Amino acid sequence: MLPSNLPDAERRSSQTVTRRRFLGALGALTSLNMLTACAARTPRDPAPVTGGPPRIENRPLMGSLDPVDVRVGLILGPPSMGLSQFLLAAQAGNTYHSFEFEVTGIDFATLAARFNRGEFDIVTLPSNIGAVLYNNDDINTEVRVINVGNLGVLYVATTDPTITSMNDLRGRTVYSIGQHGTPEFTIATVLDGYGLGNDVDMSYRATPFEVLNLLQSEENCVAVLPQPFVELARTMVDELFTPVDLTAAWDEMPSNTNRSQAVTTHTIVNRAFLEQHESAVIEYLQQAGSSVDFTLDNIEAAAAVQEELGTFLNNEVAAAAMPFCSLVSLTGEVMHDSLAGFLSAIYSQNPAAVGGSLPDNGFYYMPPIGALELDLPTLTESDRVSADAS
How are strands ordered across the β-sheet holding 69-74? Predict the structure, then answer.
């Protein structure tokens, strides 16, 4: 966001220079990679589909470098809470491409359907949905995954002080949300990992608010909730304990020999859009990464704009929850290793959860060498607090 006290002509000039710098950097990368490609006279082998991560290549950017409108759909809560500074930059016109964000609530099924209808170019969704779409030959949109935005966000929340570990859940009824979605598959994997798969009665509810009501009304109630609803529960329940972080429990499972991670959300892109406007996807990833970094270093400032941007319902709850939302922006090989390990784990629970088979390497987008280090427009520290001056 440019300083609000600049004359209009100077503001326009500053923005134009910034965009030219970005375009120049993109052009330089493309020229360099084209020269490298010409120098490499031996043909490349096809990318492997199994046996390791996809290769990161030295190649030109795909498609046009011209500015383009980018339609982005987000889920309310952790998937969008770390992106507030990106949203502010887009509102201020301080991005090379024009990003239009829509935060659609928590109904990911509708968001996925709208993406498939072509209403969005980029969307954040639960971490198994991209694989389901990728494996479905009957849908309209081919997809690629471009980043992981949240690792695990699930916690055991209870009014029973005797619950102190995973083993204490044996023989109990545990309420949660997300049946047939990422929460259920994550919980099932962790329970099985601790030998509790047949000893815990999971009872799923349609919304987190139903679970919050049970925590208020039922004695010694036990639930598994995602952040930020755990912090919201603290404001509604007198004595609430959170003895188990399911992300840590996943990491420590005896069966987790491949060191997989719990992954809550990922970002996917329409393949045709990616191939026509790869520079816009590169800018998305850089802006998202910068925004997440700012959020983690400036929790209070980032939380202060959540209501304003529609990314969460309450700024105070957001401030309390953000440190526990596992906000990340993983790309490339790190993204592949994190997400592929998670999908493999839930595939063993239910193959249908990932569309019947594990996605091959074509699912995972690998930016070309050097692309994520381009000199993109950045916000100054004073610009990163509010959208009021936009």
Answer: 98-103, 69-74, 122-126, 263-270, 143-151, 327-330
**Structural domain 9-36+52-150+261-383, CATH architecture:** 3-Layer(aba) Sandwich (3.40)
Residues of the chain by 3-state class (helix, strand, coil), percent to 5: 45, 15, 40
What pLDDT does residue 376 have? 53
Q: Which of 377, 360, 309 is nearest to 143 (CA)?
A: 360
CB atoms within 10 A of CB 301: 17
- At residue 37 the predicted structure's pLDDT band, cuts being 50, 70 and 90, is very low
Distance (Å, whole) CA 187 – CA 69: 39
What are the start and end residues of each CATH 3.40.190.10 domain in the chain? 9-36+52-150+261-383, 154-251
Per the confidence metrics, is the pTM higher than 0.70? yes
Q: Dump pLDDT digits (tens) for 194-226.
A: 999 999 999 999 989 999 999 999 999 999 999
The mean pLDDT value for 346-361 works out to: 93
Instruction: Determine the 3-state secondary structure of 212 from DSSP.
Output: helix
Beginning with the edge strand found earlier in the chain, give each strand of the sheet holding 222-226 in spatial order. Answer: 201-205, 173-177, 222-226, 154-158, 241-245
CA–CA dist 111, 327 (Å, integer):
21
Tell me phi and psi for residue 88, to 5 degrees.
-65, -45
pLDDT digits (tens, 9 = 90+) for 260-277: 899 999 999 999 999 999
| Separation CA 340–CA 270 (nearest Å) | 20
Name the CATH topology of 154-251.
Answer: D-Maltodextrin-Binding Protein; domain 2 (3.40.190)
Say how far apart CA 30 and CA 332 lie, in whole Å.
Answer: 19
Both tokens assigned to 147: 């980043």
User: Phi, psi at residue 211, to the nearest 5°?
Assistant: -70, -40
Residue 361, beta-bridge partner list: none
